[in-house]
Write a structure and sequence with these properties.
single chain, about 280 residues, mainly alpha, about 70% helix
Length: about 280
């Protein structure tokens, strides 16, 4: 099991980067290589996923409280919330299928530092280009706390879902590619970010469940103190990161994330070229 400083670092990195368009998987792949800490392992990964999942559930709780009861209400009165559920299902299917196929093929080759570096550069440039698109669709124009999901066509959910497949590449960023595609389709930044947050619910829950099953089958020892620590810290930092990001995007663009990812990609390529990584 990792020592306390390593646990803190994993939880903080996972919590901060999960929902920002900077790639949490890319940062976690690099963490052992840059710090020389042992790899965090699947048990700690699951704990971090639990924390970040709880954070996004707290932030989008109003959407969740509206979606779940809508399943038992008459169709006419629950149409917008049922539609949101359908949009999330449609947008989640591509990455579920692609993730299953990739797992069968063995994804270890994607964890190379060079892959993370190149992915950061490519997807940062795509985000920069997409963020310049004219805003033509605003789901939150009338009431920023109650987006009108009737305005999102199902074909747009499909496009965002297909873009999410790129998130299987460490360094691409799940939140980054989903927000990028939404901006490419003309959605305002807050609408793009909110749909990305909602879309993270099935993705994070599914990834955490798969890792938990793997741990159970492998009969891996469990350190409950470490799990509670990582989950709690991930929750706190993820919630803070979400609130900061949504506040930032209310009056600014994605440029700060693009610049960070380009610098990160260039630095990583430099470290690889000099043999330091």
């Amino acid at each position: 099991m990792l020592d306390i400083p390593a646990l803190f670092l994993v939880a903080i990195v996972q919590g901060i980067t999960e929902f920002l368009p900077v790639s949490s998987s890319g940062h976690l792949v690099l963490l052992p290589q840059l710090t020389h800490f042992d790899d965090q392992g699947q048990t700690i990964d699951v704990a971090a996923h639990i924390g970040t999942l709880a954070a996004v559930m707290v932030y989008v709780r109003r959407d969740i409280f509206n979606m779940l009861p809508s399943l038992t209400r008459p169709v006419s009165s629950a149409a917008p919330h049922r539609r949101l559920i359908a949009l999330l299902v449609v947008a989640s299917l591509p990455v579920i299928i692609a993730g299953f196929l990739l797992e069968m093929a063995g994804p270890e080759f994607l964890r190379a530092a060079l892959i993370v570096a190149i992915a950061n550069l490519i997807f940062a440039l795509w985000l920069w280009q997409a963020d310049k698109c004219e805003i033509s669709r605003d789901l939150t124009a009338q009431d920023s706390t109650q987006p009108d999901w009737q305005k999102m066509p199902f074909k747009h959910a499909v496009y965002i879902g297909l873009a999410q497949i790129f998130a299987l590449i460490p360094g691409a960023s799940r939140s980054g590619v989903t927000m990028t595609m939404a901006r490419q389709l003309g959605y305002d930044r807050l609408s793009a970010a909110r749909f990305s947050l909602l879309l993270s619910l099935p993705v994070i829950a599914g990834a955490g469940l798969l890792k938990a099953i793997s741990i159970y089958k492998g009969d891996t020892s469990v350190d409950m103190a470490a799990i509670v620590l990582v989950a709690g810290l991930s929750f706190i930092f993820a919630l803070l990161a979400i609130r900061w990001m949504m506040g930032w995007l209310a009056h600014a663009n994605f440029r700060i994330f693009v610049i960070y990812r380009i610098i990160l990609g260039i630095v990583l390529i430099g470290l690889i070229a000099t043999g330091s990584l």
